[in-house]
Amino acid sequence: MHGGSGVISLEKDILRRNEELAAEVRELLRRSGVRAFDIMGSVGSGKTTIIEQLVDMLKAEGVRCAAITGDVAGDCDYQRLVQHGIPAKNINTGKQCHLDSHLVLHALENFNLREIDVLFIENVGNLVCPADFPLGAEKRVVVISVTEGDDIVRKHPLIFQLADIVVLNKIDLAEFVGVEPQTVVKDFRKISPNGKIFLTNAKSGEGLAEFKNALLS
Fold first, then answer.
1. Residue 169 near residue 143 (C-beta atoms within 8 A)
2. What confidence tier does 7 reach under pLDDT thresholds 50, 70, 90?
3. How many CB atoms lie within 10 A of CB 105?
4. How confident is the model at residue 1 (pLDDT cuts 50, 70, 90)?
5. Rounded to the nearest 5°, which phi and psi values hold at 75?
6. Which of 80, 113, 123, 174 could be a cystine partner for 40, CB 3.0 to 4.6 Å?
7. Chain centre to alpha carbon of residue 27
8. Does the pLDDT at position 34 exceed 90?
9. What percentage of the chain carries pLDDT values higher than 70?
10. Residue 114 pLDDT greater than 50, yes or no
């Protein structure tokens, strides 16, 4: 019993410290005039494609964007985003299945924040771990796709409860994988009656303008 109590206490300390550092990140971004968004979601849900599309849309409006990409290993997402002409920083987390505010705070040292309007933080692909670790972002977004099944919200309720916005992506594939998008929407409404959810096809751009407007509202 004593050992179990020690583990719980350590976990609480870790979460508390993350919250403290998230507050530092939030204040740093506020002082610098940067709006930051934590983009969470499964591997393959389309997080990077959505960010790419949003970056291009915002750049066309004169908005200066940047990105932090988090992956267990590799820098594929980072390489894709820098091709859009924005400053970016890749973070490899190793065995850690999420970004934390300590990693983000250090990553911010690589940017001239006065030259950034919007910062996208692409979290590690996971629907469990990131939920417990806010990063100091203005809003938290969860991206899922119809290819994950219509029970995805029921399987991972916590991250959806904490999300400011949910994006159900790849709706063009819904009929091919036998998923009814409105089932996902209804499940989300049950746990977050006032939550915002958008149906998108990131490759074609369908639904992204509405999502962008809600993100920046």
1. yes
2. low
3. 16
4. very low
5. -140, 30
6. 123
7. 19
8. yes
9. 97
10. yes
Q: Are 75 and 69 in contact (CB under 8 A)?
A: yes
Give how far Cα 176 sits from Cα of 172, 183, 200, Å. 8, 16, 16
Q: In CATH, what class is 2-216?
A: alpha beta
- Our CA angle for 44, 77, 61, nearest 5°, is 105
- Mean predicted lDDT score pLDDT of the chain: 95
Q: Which two tokens stand for residue 147?
A: 């290819």
- pTM for this one? 0.93
| CB neighbour burial string for 17-52, b if at least 16 within 10 angstroms, e if fewer | ebeebbeebbebbeebebbbbbbbbbeebbbbbbbb
DSSP track, the chain: -HHHHHHHHHHHHHHHHHHHHHHHHHHHHHHHT-EEEEEEE-TTSSHHHHHHHHHHHHHHTT--EEEEEEESS--HHHHHHHTTT--EEEEE-TT-SS--HHHHHHHGGGS-GGG-SEEEEE--SBSSGGGG---S-SEEEEEEEGGG-TTHHHH-HHHHHH-SEEEEE-GGGHHHHT--HHHHHHHHHHH-TT-EEEE-BTTTTBTHHHHHHHHH-
pLDDT above 80 (res 8): no
What are the residue boundaries of the structural domains of the chain, listed by start? 2-216
